[in-house]
Amino acid sequence: MTMIEGFRIRNYKALRDITLGRLWNENSTEKLTPLTVVIGKNGTGKSTLFDAFGFLLDCLKFGVEAACEEKGRGGFERIMSKGVQNPIMFEVCYQEENNVRPITYEVSFALDKHNRPYVRSERLRQRRKGQDANERPFSFLILENGRGVVWKGEYEGIQESSDQLVLAEIDRLMSEESGKSETVELDDYRKLGIATLGALKQHPRISAFRQFIEGWYLSYFTPDAARNLPLAGPQKHLSVHGDNIGNVVQFMEREYPEQFAKILDDIAGKIPGINKISSERMPDGRLLLKFNDKGFEDAFSAQQMSDGTLKVFAYLLLLSDPNPHPFLCIEEPENGLYHKLMEVLMQQFRAHATDGKGKSQIFITTHQPYLVDALEPDEVWILEKGSEGFSKIRRASDDPLVQSLVNEGLPLGSLWYSDYLEEV
Predict the structure, then answer these.
(1) Fewest C-beta atoms under 10 Å: which of 167, 168, 345, 359?
(2) Could you report the per-residue pLDDT of 199-224, keeping only the tens digit for each?
(3) What proportion of the chain, given as a percentage, has pLDDT over 70?
(4) Cβ atoms of 140 and 156 closer than 8 Å
(5) Does residue 303 lie in a domain region?
(6) 199 & 229 share domain
(7) pLDDT of 268-325, one tens digit each?
(8) Whole-model pTM?
(9) pLDDT confidence of residue 118
(10) Which domain-ending residue is among 163, 193, 216?
(11) Residue 184 sits in the same domain as residue 312
(12) Residues 245, 100 within the same domain
């Protein structure tokens, strides 16, 4: 399955410079695990980290200027780290399959002379076959201020001597266009270059990366949205707010009847008191989702179910998607849940993330020790506030004492509750 091996965020709100996992120049660092969970106190930056993924996705979908206003971000000046003049920068290292060389995407955002946010630079890099892991990878997409060069197909590109070429070097590369490469001049440098180039068949690596980012799913689930009665009509995927649960059930009932019957039985078995879940089309064309509660003859509608029941059902339905998203990002899934359900839910997340090909990598933020009890130290990252007010992060498995205590059988969440994960 496609996996993010590591990522770095610089100058985004409280995240002045944090790195999780392995980047192209950090081969001694362990990669991110299929299930990654970030813990921390209130105000340490967990929501900001979650939003950083959403910002990158919104930049691809809407352009950087619109992305700065989405989700109540309030504009570029509000998302820029305070007291910092350097651009906002993201670096994502990902691997499509185990036998494919990882690809690194680097992008930076700044304000132009009219104080409008724009894409200052973009890079896509990949090492050649057989290249030493300590050598700098070759850039096959180079864009500065919307201008640059892209190498077609599987052509290697060039090995840059530094992280950023000067404009004169960009002009030279553009003048040397060949059958392997072509010049790029975007008509709007507020749009990502991968959004345009990723739509062209001569750039399969860029297209694959664009589709990977477009496939990200960030959950903004709210129980009230799930209680809506949508118009009947099958839909393949759960919306980010969960307001089309009934439509997804209708789709899966139609397309995968036998498989989905087993899925519903499995989900019902994990939600206390529920023994059957079904959908019914109403005379006015809306779709009613029904839950049969043990001990009651008549079914209950979604409007009558608890927030926790709807949330667990939505997450389990998301994990049952026959065409899963490559990357799921969920903020504080524990809200509204009975504590004994949390460990069950985390076990389902891990089973989904580690169950071979075709599944999703899952990224979760939480401050609930019951969830963390079901995790291994290498799956957990601890987010803290530094002395200057910016966030810093470390992996739980990097602490030998923590790893030793977990090996002795002590649950990781209990260690967190007892302050063993606090930085000395």
Answers:
(1) 168
(2) 989 999 999 999 999 999 999 998 88
(3) 95
(4) yes
(5) yes
(6) no
(7) 777 777 877 777 778 877 777 788 887 777 788 878 888 888 888 889 889 988 889 9
(8) 0.91
(9) 97
(10) 216
(11) no
(12) no
Domain count within the chain: 2
Residue 139 pairs with which residues in a beta bridge?
A: 125, 158
Are 102 and 186 in a shared domain? yes
| Average pLDDT, integer, range 32-57 | 95
Q: Are residues 258 and 189 in the same domain?
A: no
pLDDT, position 175: 66
Same domain, 25 and 168: yes
